[in-house]
C-alpha cells in the first residue's frame, strides 16, 4: 500500500511517500509460512519483527507450527502461525500456569502501524483452566499508547480493536482489526491470566503492518524545509532553516541505507547522491519528529 502526500514549502514541492514495506518501518507483513515448523525459544526475530515470550518463561517457549485441531487460524498443514507457550517437548498443552506476557515489535525499534492480524487462544476446554481473554496494548519507547481488552469467545466492534470471531462455535480465534489509534507504536503486548490456575495459549498469524501516517501538525517536522532540485542529476540541496541537529538517511527502493549523516547543524546542507538513476527516499529526524521525502535521480 503506497500513500503519497504532497506539500509545498518556499515554492518547492515535496512528495512524502509513506510506504508499508521495510523502507522506514523495518517490520514486514508476516504469515510464517516460509518458516519450517520448529521450536523458536523465548526471543525470536524474523522479517524485521521481534517476538518475545516474557512470561511464562520456563518449561515452554514459542514455536512456528500448524495445529488445526486446536487453532482455527491454521487449518492446513502448510499454513503456519506462531504459537506462544508450547511445551519444550513440542506438545501443544500450554504447560505453564500463571500470568502471561507475549510481545511482538520492530526488531530495530522503528515505529509502525498495525492494521490487522489473526489471533487464536485455542479450542482447549475452559474447565481445564485455559483462558480466552487478553489485554492488548501498543507501546512506543516502553510507554503505553493504546490498549483494548479482547474476549476471544465473541465478536466485538465497540473499541479500538475490532474482533471478528470465526463462525466455528468450538473455536476461540478470528481476526483483529486495529483503528488508526494503533499507529506510531513499536511494540504490541498481549497480557492477562492469573498467578495460579490459568493456562494461556496464543497463536498469531497473517500480520499486516503499514508505516505510520505522520501528521504534519503532530509528528512531522513543521519548519519550512526546501529540497532542490528534484528530480536531480546528483547534487541535492537541503535548506533546513532554523532546524538544528538533523539526522539524515537515504534509502533506495529496497530499503537499503545508501547514505547517512548524523547531527547536521548547517542551515544549508549539500548531499551528493552517488547512486544509479532511480527513486530514493530521504528520512529526516530531529528530536521526536521526522519526515520522509521522495526524490528522483535521473
Please provide a written account of the structure:
With 298 residues, this protein is an all-beta fold. The chain has two domains: 2-23 and 215-297, Immunoglobulin-like (Sandwich), CATH 2.60.40; 38-210, Protein of unknown function DUF4465 (Jelly Rolls, Sandwich), CATH 2.60.120.1350. Helices cover 0% and strands 49% of the residues. The chain is built from no helices and 22 strands. The protein has strands at 2-9, 12-19, 38-41, 43-46, 49-55, 60-65, 81-87, 100-106, 113-120, 133-140, 143-151, 161-165, 173-178, 187-192, 202-210, 226-228, 235-239, 246-251, 257-264, 268-272, 278-286, 289-297. It has a seven-stranded antiparallel beta sheet with strand order 3-6-7-15-9-13-12, with no helix packed on it. Strand 1 and strand 2 (12-19) form a beta hairpin. The protein starts with a strand and ends with a strand.
Layout of strands and helices, then pairs:
Blueprint: E1 2-9, E2 12-19, E3 38-41, E4 43-46, E5 49-55, E6 60-65, E7 81-87, E8 100-106, E9 113-120, E10 133-140, E11 143-151, E12 161-165, E13 173-178, E14 187-192, E15 202-210, E16 226-228, E17 235-239, E18 246-251, E19 257-264, E20 268-272, E21 278-286, E22 289-297
N-to-C SSE series?
Answer: EEEEEEEEEEEEEEEEEEEEEE
For CATH, the homologous superfamily of the largest domain is named as Protein of unknown function DUF4465
Name the CATH class of the largest domain.
Mainly Beta
Roughly what is the average pLDDT, rounded to an integer? 85
**What fraction of residues sit in β-strands?**
over 45%
This entry's quaternary arrangement is single chain
Based on DSSP secondary structure assignment, what is the total number of beta strands? 22
Amino acid at each position: 500500500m503506497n500513500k503519497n502526500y504532497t506539500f509545498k514549502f518556499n515554492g518547492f514541492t515535496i512528495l512524502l511517500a509513506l510506504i508499508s514495506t521495510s523502507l522506514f518501518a523495518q517490520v514486514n507483513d508476516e504469515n510464517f509460512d516460509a518458516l519450517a515448523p520448529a521450536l523458536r525459544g523465548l526471543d525470536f526475530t524474523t522479517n524485521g519483527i521481534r517476538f518475545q515470550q516474557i512470561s511464562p518463561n520456563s518449561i515452554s517457549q514459542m514455536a512456528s507450527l500448524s495445529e488445526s485441531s486446536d487453532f482455527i487460524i491454521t487449518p492446513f498443514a502448510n499454513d503456519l502461525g506462531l504459537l506462544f507457550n508450547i511445551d519444550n517437548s513440542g506438545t501443544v498443552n500450554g504447560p505453564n500456569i500463571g500470568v502471561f506476557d507475549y510481545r511482538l515489535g520492530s526488531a530495530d525499534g522503528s515505529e509502525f502501524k498495525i492494521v490487522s492480524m489473526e489471533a487464536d487462544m485455542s479450542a482447549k476446554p475452559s474447565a481445564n483452566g485455559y483462558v480466552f481473554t487478553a489485554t492488548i496494548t501498543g507501546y512506543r519507547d516502553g510507554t503505553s499508547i493504546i490498549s483494548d481488552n479482547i474476549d476471544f469467545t465473541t465478536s466485538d466492534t465497540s473499541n479500538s480493536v475490532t474482533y471478528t470471531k470465526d463462525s466455528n462455535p468450538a473455536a476461540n480465534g478470528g481476526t483483529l482489526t486495529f483503528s488508526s489509534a494503533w499507529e506510531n507504536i513499536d511494540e504490541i503486548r498481549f497480557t492477562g491470566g492469573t498467578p495460579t490456575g490459568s493456562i494461556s495459549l496464543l497463536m498469531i498469524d497473517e500480520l499486516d503492518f503499514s508505516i505510520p501516517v505522520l501528521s504534519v501538525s503532530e509528528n512531522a517536522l513543521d519548519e519550512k524545509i526546501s529540497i532542490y532540485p528534484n528530480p536531480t542529476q546528483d547534487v541535492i540541496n537541503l535548506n533546513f532553516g532554523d532546524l538544528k541537529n538533523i539526522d539524515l538517511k537515504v534509502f533506495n527502493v529496497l530499503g537499503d541505507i545508501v547514505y547517512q549523516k548524523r547531527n547536521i547543524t548547517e542551515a544549508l546542507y549539500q548531499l551528493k547522491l552517488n547512486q544509479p538513476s532511480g527513486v530514493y527516499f530521504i528520512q529526516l529526524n530531529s528530536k521526536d519528529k521526522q519526515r520522509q521525502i521522495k526524490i528522483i535521480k535521473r
